[in-house]
Amino acid sequence: MGAENYTISREFILLGLTSHPKTRLLLFVTVLLIYLLTIFGNTLIIILVWVDSQLHTPIYFFLSHLAGMEIGYVTSTLPQMLSHLLNGNVAISLVRCILQGYMTLGMGSTECLLLGAMAYDRYLAICHPLVYALAMDRLCQLLLTTFYWTVGFVFSAIYVLCTFHHPFCAIVINHFICEPPVVLKLACGDTRITKVIGFGLSTFIVLVPLFVILTSSGYILNSVLHMRSTGGWHKAFSTCGSHLSVVTLFYGIIISMYIVPQSDSTPDRDKKIAVFYLIIIPLLNPIIYTLRNKDIHLAALKMLKRL
């Protein structure tokens, strides 16, 4: 078939994770369990932050937005993935492919920015506690979150439009979702400008928040080292440790997918990497942020007593 026929078909074929029926069934059960746990964990965080007045602080405000973003993130990808695992290779229309790529990239971009906002919040709380309440008031929280959601989805729109304006020489995508960098590999003609635009946008959306996180962590570490109180040390490390765990996982994987040059010698590389930031990390986020968090524990106990 020529490139024109592929373009007229207006659909792609997603290969999914595997073609083995027994493996697909096992993965279906695993992914379904992860999806339900992810929805439950992040929904619980949103409810606790909403109903408990003790959690009406900037860090939990950002955390509730992160939880909501994770719910949208997995819901835009995993239901279709579950369908693929049951039915094998599945056709997806061009419009659905564009929408999925837009939503997935928009949610991921917003997460990058929100993690940076949370790091800046911890820097103010620990290094400048006297001005923290004024600097991070309700208006500032709303402006920051609105800005980050807007920038994340504008970035996604530009990346997706640049990717899908090309004609495509093939329709078979070796992935379980329509991720723009993977779809771009099927494009005909010269894609160098699109790749440069994608690289520039990805570098900005990933490395700027990462710089904020690392800089904030450096200032926090310096402030902690000057603390005389052992309790202060413990509280600071407990507060920032979970955040750095998420950052190490998320940014490391995202950089390897969107910024580091990729080799065509490993065709399954993209979808193997995507499993981590589309499936594993959204499940780990609520666990990491709540496992050692006494405020969340107390809020959960209060809610259980009320029930």
Summarize this structure as a short list of keywords or feature phrases.
globular; three-stranded mixed sheet; 307 residues; 3 strands; single chain; 12 helices; disordered N terminus; Rhopdopsin 7-helix transmembrane proteins; mainly alpha
What's the helix and strand layout?
Elements: H1 3-9, E1 11-14, H2 21-51, H3 58-75, H4 78-87, E2 90-93, H5 94-127, H6 129-135, H7 138-164, E3 172-173, H8 180-184, H9 192-225, H10 230-258, H11 269-291, H12 294-306
Parallel strand pairs: 1-3
Antiparallel strand pairs: 1-2
Organism: Notechis scutatus (mainland tiger snake)
Pfam families: 7tm_4 (PF13853)
Membrane topology: Multi-pass membrane protein
Number of domains: 1
Shape: globular
The structural class is: mainly alpha
Average pLDDT, all residues: 83
- Rg, Å, rounded: 21 Å
Counted beta strands: 3
Poorly predicted runs are 1-8
Helix content: over 70%
Keywords: Cell membrane, G-protein coupled receptor, Membrane, Olfaction, Receptor, Sensory transduction, Transducer, Transmembrane, Transmembrane helix
Transmembrane segments: 25-51, 57-74, 147-177, 197-221, 242-261, 273-291
GO molecular function: G protein-coupled receptor activity; olfactory receptor activity
Domain G-protein coupled receptors family 1 profile: 41-289
